[in-house]
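Quick one, tokens below. Sequence please?
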């Protein structure tokens, strides 16, 4: 698998031929100008030697008017494991943008 979207699908527990053999997650919360910020950082180790870093940052304010909550999502290939994963990193500003990109990747690859 040489497409980052394949690894993201696996991380999101969607059907995939890839296998995660180990993963770790750190959670952090802090205040920024009175707004509570949550950060999640996970490392996913795949059985083919690839390691993907996943980061999610969001504030804990609720805005019922938003269709898709604003947040910061990023994926980065930390270890290629002899593969050539492209793109090597990808960032999104909300889960809707991420879903759309993954859907488009599925159509362009499949």
């Amino acid at each position: 698998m040489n497409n980052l979207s394949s690894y993201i699908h696996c991380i999101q527990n969607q059907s995939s031929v890839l296998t995660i053999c180990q993963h770790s997650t750190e959670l952090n919360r802090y205040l920024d100008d009175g707004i509570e910020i949550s950060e999640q950082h996970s490392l996913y180790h795949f059985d083919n030697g690839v390691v993907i870093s996943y980061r999610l940052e969001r504030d804990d304010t609720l805005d019922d008017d938003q269709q898709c909550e604003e947040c910061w999502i990023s994926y980065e290939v930390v270890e290629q494991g002899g593969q050539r994963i492209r793109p090597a990193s990808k960032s999104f500003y909300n889960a809707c943008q991420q879903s759309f990109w993954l859907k488009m990747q599925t159509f362009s690859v499949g």
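The CA atoms of residues 27 and 40 lie 5 Å apart. The chain has a mean pLDDT of 90.
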